[in-house]
Design a protein that fits this description.
The complex is a heterodimer.
Chain A: E1 3-6, E2 11-14, E3 19-21, E4 23-26, E5 32-38, E6 44-50, E7 56-59, E8 62-65, E9 75-77, E10 86-96, E11 99-104, E12 108-113
Parallel strand pairs in A: 2-12
Antiparallel strand pairs in A: 1-4, 3-9, 5-6, 5-10, 7-8, 8-9, 10-11, 10-12
Chain B: E1 4-7, E2 10-13, E3 19-25, E4 31-38, E5 42-51, E6 54-57, E7 65-66, E8 76-78, E9 87-94, E10 102-103, E11 107-111
Parallel strand pairs in B: 2-11
Antiparallel strand pairs in B: 1-3, 3-8, 4-5, 4-9, 5-6, 7-8, 9-10, 9-11
The chains are: A mainly beta, B mainly beta.
């Protein structure tokens, strides 16, 4: 079945450091890929997405490129801020036999210190 | 304001006492889904619905029921809750799977 593996946290960085959170997936066909962010005490919000190979999703300074050859969708940001502290989830959406569902990774907690 | 609402936000109950968590969206979305979030396990899908009267099991459906009688509502029913259903539950909706999924604020359930 479909699955998503993302790097385990927690990740602790200083403000203005570079961030990479690795995400790889296993799926047949051509899934859509997502990064969601969960701020403390809140629900998940879509951060960015890519729907086909080589697409780059970007938002709020974050980027991720859909790499079919390496089955990866790593999240990157060049300079993190304290306000980026949150849990980040990689996810894929795949059409299976007429049914669709979203599969999430386990999440990576990021803490950014001033 | 476009939103997904869940009620209650917090609930403490006892084993075996039936409960319902409501979910409602005001965006006319076809797709709705329920997830549970547990430490170290991330989010796991319980049930989803592609449209009215169309529901299907996710990865962890045991012990849960859902219904989709109206497009805007997708209640989660626990007929006989057990302590292993203590979790944080999220409802979500989307126009199609490749569009953004909007999440509710979550319901923290404790079963004693």
């Amino acid at each position: 079945g479909d699955s998503v593996t993302q790097m385990e946290g927690p990740v602790t960085l200083s403000e203005e450091a570079c961030l990479t959170i690795n995400c790889t997936y296993t799926a047949t066909g051509y899934p859509s890929l997502f990064w969601y962010v969960q701020y403390p005490g809140e629900g998940l919000q879509l951060l960015l997405k890519a729907t086909k190979a080589d697409d780059k999703g970007s938002n709020k300074g974050f980027e991720a490129t859909y790499r079919k050859e390496t089955t990866s969708f790593h999240l990157e940001k060049g300079s993190v801020q304290v306000s980026d502290s949150a849990v980040y989830f990689c996810a894929l959406g795949h059409l299976q036999g007429g049914s669709e569902k979203l599969v999430f990774g386990k999440g990576t907690k990021l803490t950014v210190n001033p | 304001e476009a939103q997904v609402t869940q009620n209650p936000r917090y609930l403490i109950t006892v084993t075996g006492k039936k409960l319902t968590v409501t979910c409602s969206q005001n965006m006319n979305h076809e797709y709705m889904s329920w997830y549970r979030q547990d430490p170290g396990l991330g989010l796991r899908q319980i049930y989803y619905s592609m449209n009215v009267e169309v529901t299907d099991k996710g990865d962890v459906p045991e012990g849960y029921k859902v219904s989709r009688k109206e497009k805007r509502n997708f209640p989660l029913i626990l007929e006989s809750p057990s302590p292993n259903q203590t979790s944080l539950y999220f409802c979500a909706s989307a126009g199609t799977l490749n569009n953004e999924q909007f999440f509710g604020p979550g319901t923290r359930l404790t079963v004693l």
